[in-house]
Amino acid sequence: xxxxxxxxxxxxxxxxxxxxxxxxxxxxxxxxxxxxxxxxxxxxxxxxxxxxxxxxxxxxxxxxxxxxxxxxxxxxxxxxxxxxxxxxxxxxxxxxxxxxxxxxxxxxxxxxxxxxxxxxxxxxxxxxxxxxxxxxxxxxxxxxxxxxxxxxxxxxxxxxxxxxxxxxxxxxxxxxxxxxxxxxxxxxxxxxxxxxxxxxxxxxxxxxxxxxxxxxxxxxxxxxxxxxxxxxxxxxxxxxxxxxxxxxxxxxxxxxxxxxxxxxxxxxxxxxxxxxxxxxxxxxxxxxxxxxxxxxxxxxxxxxxxxxxxxxxxxxxxxxxxxxxxxxxxxxxxxxxxxxxxxxxxxxxxxxxxxxxxxxxxxxxxxxxxxxxxxxxxxxxxxxxxxxxxxxxxxxxxxxxxxxxxxxxxxxxxxxxxxxxxxxxxxxxxxxxxxxxxxxxxxxxxxxxxxxxxxxxxxxxxxxxxxxxxxxxxxxxxxxxxxxxxxxxxxxxxxxxxxxxxxxxxxxxxxxxxxxxxxxxxxxxxxxxxxxxxxxxxxxxxxxxxxxxxxxxxxxxxxxxxxxxxxxxxxxxxxxxxxxxxxxxxxxxxxxxxxxxxxxxxxxxxxxxxxxxxxxxxxxxxxxxxxxxxxxxxxxxxxxxxxxxxxxxxxxxxxxxxxxxxxxxxxxxxxxxxxxxxxxxxxxxxxxxxxxxxxxxxxxxxxxxxxxxxxxxxxxxxxxxxxxxxxxxxxxxxxxxxxxxxxxxxxxxxxxxxxxxxxxxxxxxxxxxxxxxxxxxxxxxxxxxxxxxxxxxxxxxxxxxxxxxxxxxxxxxxxxxxxxxxxxxxxxxxxxxxxxxxxxxxxxxxxxxxxxxxxxxxxxxxxxxxxxxxxxxxxxxxxxxxxxxxxxxxxxxxxxxx
Length: 898
Ligand code: ADP
Ligand code: MG
Ligand code: MG
Fold this sequence. Notes:
By secondary structure, the chain is of the alpha/beta class.
């Protein structure tokens, strides 16, 4: 148990132990910000709680009593007192903030007696009863589990409130208009609801309430929505949550009070402006829940100028101290500002970029920190399309809301998370439309292209999640009328049914009917289309600055996986410095080539096969020449034919007959060959270098195509650096046989053309035996490229294409923490990479090492590849910026760790 307040035990660096909230409450106390006193129960207690069948350590109660005594002493109030009762909040706080996942209980300590004491003490019965009804509501929900049932669209407590308003006023009235008598009645009805739904009496003793609340906070660590969230963000369940118990300050005492949430800068677009919102005469939960639509903080300037000035001062202090944009929660009680939370603000990729560059210019951070401030896995957001300006000019906005998540999204609307998920699973583009969202909607939000809400401000749940997940979001679009029952959205005199199309512009906060056409982002337009206007935008210039820093910081370079000149050009524009993988088989499918390929496969003699291959050669040569030109002197790793041959043959009877006619081979012969090539385990069958060993003439043709193209392009004055890659090598001898074929072709072409070529021959390390015997293989291989897709499949004995039937369950059970086909299994498959790196270097110290599997574009895998010391990673063209950023961050982190 750690105190904060007049005496503060912890500090901001203790997040693992105190949770993010607790550690920063302590830190704020240390720098003299006004924080109500309290104490933090550590995450270790949570771990103990789950390890010990949900019981507490014996010493806990005593420590909590000491903690409460300390708060009593500092506030002059007493817990459960009948004169001046102390009320506390019980707040969860995990290491990383998990917005909306954990539940907070306010005004704890109230019962039928203390509420009267509070009313007398403050001379404000309305306030006291408002606190009480809030407390019963929150406690009933969070601790006693009185929650919305699957068939209900509204929270049961809200339904009781609506009913009361209806009974007494026959219309909707604002909560702030309810009288003391209304509130008394609400408490009675709430308690009856609790009794009915939870089957037990509401606890009266403050200590019973407190212990129950602490248990509920720990319990909520394992609730469904927390689990879903942790899975999405890969937060280990072992971390646990802390619990903060803190003296209440009251934002609901009248119109000189209120609660708010603010950012020190705009987290949606990055502008340097005080950004946030508040509600007069409200407790904090109202702001976050998005039940009432709050006012922007700038309004406070008029309504409470002194409090606003204090907040401005706090805003400056926070940024100077934390040196990052802060997201903070405050309450004003009778004109006095209190700080209740601060954390590094979640931000969109666009804001992250602007924050980092601006703060570097303001000398708050150095350039390396600026690089680290851009989340690599969010960077792709900056490349996402925006609405085409011409199209937007034509379209008429049918509603306007807050621009909470920048970008453009069009989709078919769904009003409920489950239906949104189902539609998305069917391949539809979905727009989730809700009055407001809550954590139960998370799955639907993940599935949707964009989120549109009718109510709630910039700190509503929808906006929060949008910021974090990079979803396009417009919230608080008051003009739309969402009817959950009828499943319709009425707006601007039109009615939209589920399945109808709508578009939202999360940068401008506009809503459009139908599908609005999109255009490439400024960065794509500037880099790939040389659009001069785009290049002048701040977004483009900031992006280029970031990429330049990335090059300065990185040790590894970034290449691309590309099969065409166009892909290559794009990747080079994004900053790739070579090709890490060209898959030659993709080139065999287009147009007439596939016929030549099939003739080759159907050939019965070597001569026939060579004749067919001769037809393919010019095609391949042209492809390679195009790629070499696009590379402008950068190296290209070209992988020889890899897939099993039957993949190139038609499988249905009709297709076989058509092919027979076309190439003049009997259909029966085709059918027979297909049968003959059939394999039980194609992934482990006649493929990779096994093909080139079985049919050396295939490799010979491919080598010729590579070198003839190289000679041709080199004659044009462009440097060419081919790196021939033999796939699926497990034995040194396999490689040696293929290398000989390659060298022979190279010698022949150089002689014929008189051009001297610089080239390398190497291999892909993608089966365990290859990795384990890398020292032998490196005697022949001039480079290794880790094919981590196959290395994962063979290393885990798990077929990627078949893993859908069991892998999700494995992730749920945390047998695997992440999908190993997306993020490298560092402890297992990673060892194979590590062994191969060390063994490879032991026999060829300057061997070139790269990775070309899907993992080459995944930030956490890139971090691993930095650690094992690869020379480059390779990924698809649009992932190149992400990989550059991740490589830079990995290098900076590794250096910092030295
Ligand atoms: P979350 O993690 O969901 O943000 P918090 O623990 O921060 O939950 O609580 C939500 C809100 O409850 C806070 O923003 C604040 O407005 C209010 N709150 C929490 N503790 C107190 C307190 N001691 N006094 C007044 N308001 C509080
Ligand atoms: Mg909360
Ligand atoms: Mg909070």
